[in-house]
Amino acid sequence: MSIDPSLLRTRDLRTGYRSGAKRIVVAGSLPELNIQAGQLICLLGPNGSGKSTLLRTLAGLQPALGGTIHIDGAGRGTPAELAKRISLVLTDRVRGNNLTVYSLIALGRYPYSGWLGGLDEADKAAVEWAIVSTGVEALRNRKVHTLSDGESQKVMLARALAQDTPILMLDEPTAHLDLPSRIRLMRLLHRQTRKGILLSTHELDLALQVADEVWLLQPGGGFYKGAPEDLVLDGIFEAAFANEDIHFDREAGTFVIHTEAGKPIGFSGEGAVASGEGGVASLERAVASAERAIAFWTERALRREGYVVVAPGSAPHTVRLCREGSGFRWRLEAGKTVIEYDSISGLLQALRG
Fold first, then answer.
1. Pairwise CA distance, residues 345 & 301, whole Å
2. CB-neighbour burial class of residue 277 (10 A; exposed 0-12, middle 13-18, buried 19+)
3. Range among 143-152, 257-266, 279-288 with highest mean pLDDT value
4. For residue 321, which of 262, 240, 266 has the smallest C-alpha distance?
5. pLDDT at 267 over 80
6. What are the residue ranges of CATH 3.40.50.300 in the chain?
7. Residue 163 and which of 61, 117, 127, 183 are 20 to 30 A apart at CA?
8. How far apart are CA 342 and CA 123, in angstroms?
9. For the whole prediction, is pTM greater than 0.85?
10. Which DSSP string do the residues of 151-198 spell out, in sequence order?
């Protein structure tokens, strides 16, 4: 008999709400879902697709409209048993003016300590580890109501880590964090190799970089799951988020804002890597890499200005990226007139004029 490695598994799950005798289905007949230890799953989808509803249903905050959810091969169990299996971080702001950050994080140990809150040495060690891991040491004595949204988000993650469950679920955990904090959060989650992690997010670019698997919900109940690379190559991302304002560039792995077609402009950048060995070749490779990066951002800036980038010489104006010593300059050619600029900003100002 094979052993099911899943921490959580669903069958024929249907999510939504009940209003009296009426059932409002958000997502119906979802394919089998499972979360395994060491797996980070990103739950994606446009607003209104049912991400939060699915997350809350899996976590036991609201009943499913149909289907089954098994945790560790069994049913949900009692709320106390469920609290030892799943920890949940929501976007709701915590209330409790007299509660300190340390006390809030320590509440994560209630499944083991009981409501009286007596912490033994193991509980205290778990709380301290969670505080250090999330970088909230300086906040431990602050009152919860004095925290910013970003600080509150980190503290709630610390509470969930102190709870020390095999499954961790997070609803928009990066919503109030700056970019460095988002990256630190994702690195921290990746280090939780004993946990199965499910997080909903609108950070599509970030999800493509960190997710082991993506669950993609669409309004009306459409659902896809798989490795993020497979969903990109199959065109699912492009179709799911296509609209008149943006499109997904599968080659760059990013979303691009649509701009109206404008005037053509030629563009040329050099980037050939010199052959050979030793320090000179390494330097040439570094310079070529820098030039490719500058060429990429130059072309991006031209497109943002509304230009259509074409081959050099086939438009009234041509921009050439030229190496000058250890740096680069931008040469704007218009007929016999040639002017050089030392920044993209200078080039764009000239084109606007």
1. 9
2. exposed
3. 143-152
4. 266
5. yes
6. 6-254
7. 183
8. 59
9. no
10. HHHHHHHHHHHHH--SEEEEESTTTT--HHHHHHHHHHHHT-TTSEEE
Residue 86 gets the label, from left (phi > 0), alpha (psi -120 to 50) or beta, of beta
Q: How far apart are CA 112 and CA 45, in angstroms?
A: 35
Residue 291's CB is within 10 A of a number of other CB atoms, namely 19
pLDDT, position 261: 64
Which is higher by pLDDT, 193 or 37?
A: 37
**One-letter amino acid for residue 217 of the chain:** L
The pLDDT tens digits for 200-245 are 998 888 888 889 999 999 877 789 999 999 988 888 887 877 765 6
- The CA distance from 260 to 59, in Å, is 45
Q: Name the DSSP class of 78.
A: -
Helices (H), the chain: 51-59, 79-83, 101-106, 110-113, 121-133, 149-163, 179-190, 204-210, 228-233, 236-240, 278-304, 344-352
Question: What percentage of the chain exceeds 90 in pLDDT?
Answer: 38
Q: What CATH number belongs to 6-254? A: 3.40.50.300
DSSP one-letter string for 236-247: HHHHHS--SSEE
Estimate to the nearest angstrom the gap between the alpha carbon of 222 and the chain centroid: 21
What's the maximum distance between 2 C-alpha atoms anywhere in the chain? 84
- How many separate helices (H) and strands (E) can be counted in the chain? 12, 17
pLDDT band at 117 (very low <50, low <70, confident <90, very high): low
Per-chain mean pLDDT for the chain: 84
How far, in Å, CA of 315 to CA of 309, rounded? 9
Token pair recorded at residue 89: 């971080």
Token representation of residue 65: 């409209």
* Dihedral angle over CA of 224, 36, 189, 241, nearest 10: 0
β-strands 34-36, 40-44: how paired? Answer: unpaired
Type of residue at 82: L
Asked if the model's pLDDT at residue 248 lies above 80, the reply is no
% of the chain beyond a pLDDT of 70: 89
Residue type, 116: L
